[in-house]
Amino acid sequence: MIKLSPAVLQAVNKPARYTGGEVNAVHKDRSKIACSFALSMPDVYEVGMSNLGLKILYEILNKRDDIAAERVYTPWPDMEAKMRENNIPLYALESFTELAKFDFVGFSLQYELIYTNILNMLDLAGIPLLSEKRTNDMPFIIGGGPCVYNVEPIADFFDFFIIGEGEEIIIEVADAYIKWCSQTTTHDRKEFLQCAAAINGIYVPSFYREEYDENGLFKDLTPIYDNIPATINKRVVKDMDTIPSIEKPIVPYINIVHDRLMLELFRGCSRGCRFCQAGIAYRPVRERRKETLRLLAKKMIDSTGYDEMSLTSLSSADYSCLPALIDELGTDHADEKMSFSLPSLRIDSFSIDIARKLQTARKSGLTFAPEAGTQRLRDVINKGVTEADLLKACSAAFSHGWKTVKLYFMIGLPTETDEDIKGIASLAEKVVALYKEIKGRRDIKVTVSVSCFVPKPFTPFQWFGQNSKAEFERKQQLLKTHIKDRAIQFNYHDSSTSILEGIISRGDRRLSKVIYRAYKKGAKFDGWSEMFNFSIWQEAFADEGIDTAVYNLRTRDFNEKLPWEHTTPGVSKQFLLNEWKKALSQELTSDCRRSSCTGCGICQALDAGVIDWEEGK
Amino acid sequence: MNIFRIEITKEDPLRYISHLDYANLLQRAIRRAGLPAAYSEGFNPHMKVSFASALAVGVTADGEYADIELTKNICQPDFFDRLKNVLPDGMQLISAKQIGDGRHQSMNALADAAFYEIKLPDIADSSELQIAVDKFNTAPSIIFMREKLGKGAKKGHIVKKEINIKDFLLSELNCDNEENTITVTIKVSPLGSIKPAEMIRALQENYLPSLDSNSALINRKTLSANGKSLMEFCQTIS
């Protein structure tokens, strides 16, 4: 057990990040535990504590008397320095047990720029970074979350990965471990990895060998044992109403990024935006019943005392019973001054009505994501939103008193021309003009936020060559010169993080060495702009002789075997290819949720189906 | 209008949280307890809870004081038990008292003195501490340079201000060589005060260079108004 001295805690910023003990944290007698997990999001406490997936797994695991799940986050560099100076190994926040003494350390892989933090945390824990170097007394390092649809760049660091939704499989892993412990005579980790690999949805990277062709391009990845599957489909929870969920979330002592309750209305989104990986990764859409949600909401509110709840989903406004749910939640908690919010709005007047219902008290700004500046390009990405939709939604919002609108766009999408970039500026201007027309005043603020598009695996754009840094910068400047109205605020970011994300997200196993080298050169918290240092990464790529353009800038051949195909959300490659072709001809694909099947193949591959509680269904 | 004044602790598990976070913690506990808390009117309703003073990060207290306004009348034992059962580790309810429904002077304006006990880390030579404390006590003034991160126009800069520690002390430093502790009473006023940590830093900088001031554990034993505990001092404004 680690003891932290006051001298350490008083010397760091926000010491409560490191001291645990929060309301609803679960403390167990470790001597009575058969299997222990340290769950981590490799980012600072305030970010990690806001992660929904880990909250779910924490409760599911801790429901079992013989399993303990604890939490660990990345120490901020001030604390890291103190820990290294005083030889304090990384520990988990519940029992202050060293990470190295856990059976499993699970990392939530939310985005590529936190990979170096994982290495840093393993190092702080005294756990060898490479899985092959770990001895039998070491924990198994496992990964899960959205990045599992291409884990090859970090394959060397992990013992295994969980592909897809974790609620059921995490218990299967724990049970397999408990059983193995009671039977094994060798305690050889490879023996357990064989047991794990037998579980549907587990990928053990060391059981596969990769091959490259004579030009150095990825050729294939094949299992080295006969009993190991060549491809691993994601796991999905078929019924969101019966699966256990969050009832007693931890209430942090300090303000965290999402300092409110999260009620997950449904999983999945089938609108079919062609740039969106989550849209494929979380299919099919599975709603919870309104009654289940009311019960979960009550349990969470009663057990925490929070006064804010976010109704989360990929596209919450699509929940079939949303207006009724909001009314009933309002009635259920009328005396408690609860405020409910939606994380994102659809671009239509229905959403404005919902926003009005929710914001009886506070009137914060509205956020819409048209994603592209022209109708042509919005059709390419299958956004399914027209300029008329946006103006209608804004018009409804303005007449109800809103005067702050945030618009999200991407640049660098396939087929984009300068006209599409200028279209972003003119769309924003139209919103400003609309406000003046309706209100006769000029006190509107429109924020245009533009990010750089990163093509992702398992999307119709997975073959597309990303824009270069120079091209992103040119487009940013072009847009800047076209935004003239002072009511419009233009936000953009340095494109180098998107470039790095672009390289890693479609990378292969050879990038493990680069990530390792970048970490050794001091890269950490790469997702934090003030900490990100692109030149470290450029050196690391050069040192390892990696031509990054092959990964991000190159347009891939449709016949190429892609390095990520073996850990799949279940989508058919033919569907993605058809979608790419439809994108080029600006043809739309409808939402399968309330119309006919569009043939993505996921329901069939996973033996799951859409669950939608819309009246009459 | 029903107001309860409570005395609660801020113990070791909560040592490193800020005053704002501590206040949040209490408010969430009040909600978990299902107490009929009163809220402010307007677009952004706030629970009507007011504190006597703001404790710094790193400081514990044997007694923190808060006034909680309720919309319904409930009896003291019921209030006490419901709140006590939901408080987090490190926050214990010592006492609760209904202070009527008249208008009260805010506790913040009432409190005028805070009595601290500071446990110092081991010092090789304990007589060294006594000598330093004696020098501190006899000095006519102790100047300390307060450094703060600037706000507003001065953001990004460190703002320095010279303060005389002695202006804020209501007692001498008393030191217990056996226990390695210092006790002192510090003036609390709406016009400003000093943090006990600043006083310890001043002691270290001027007279006790070997002291690791970051390792000092500061506890506020009492907060008082006119020599009386705030629990007794419920002055009604007529």
Task: Describe the structure in your own words.
The complex is a heterodimer of chains A (about 625) and B (about 240). Chain A has helices at about 5-10, 45-50, 50-60, 75-85, 115-125, 170-185, 190-195, 275-280, 290-305, 320-330, 350-360, 375-380, 385-400, 420-440, 470-480, 495-505, 510-520, 535-545, 550, 575-585, 600-605; strands spanning about 35-40, 65-75, 105-110, 140-145, 160, 200-205, 210, 220-225, 230-235, 260-265, 265, 285, 310, 340, 365-370, 405-410, 445-450, 490, 565-570. Chain A is an alpha/beta fold. In chain A, strands 2-1-3-4-5-6 form a six-stranded mixed β-sheet. In chain A, strands 15-16-17-18 form a four-stranded parallel β-sheet. Chain A has a three-stranded parallel β-sheet with strand order 10-13-14, with helices on one face. In chain A, α11 runs parallel beside α13 (about 385-400) and α13 runs parallel beside α14 (about 420-440). Chain A is globular. Chain A starts with 5 loop residues before the first helix and ends in an 11-residue tail after the last helix. The model of chain A has no long low-confidence stretch (mean pLDDT about 95). Chain B is of the alpha+beta class. Chain B has two domains: about 1-110, Pseudouridine synthase I, catalytic domain, N-terminal subdomain (Alpha-Beta Plaits, 2-Layer Sandwich), CATH 3.30.70.580; about 120-215, no CATH class. Chain B is about 20% helix and about 30% strand. In chain B, the strands form two sheets. In chain B, strands 1, 2, 3, 4, 5, 8, 9, 10 and 11 form a nine-stranded mixed β-sheet that branches. Chain B has a two-stranded antiparallel ribbon with strand order 6-7. In chain B, about 30% of the residues are buried. At the A-B interface, α1 and α9 of A face α1 of B. Chain B: InterPro entries: DUF2344. Chain B: This is Radical SAM-linked protein. Chain B: Pfam families: DUF2344. Chain B: It comes from Pectinatus haikarae.
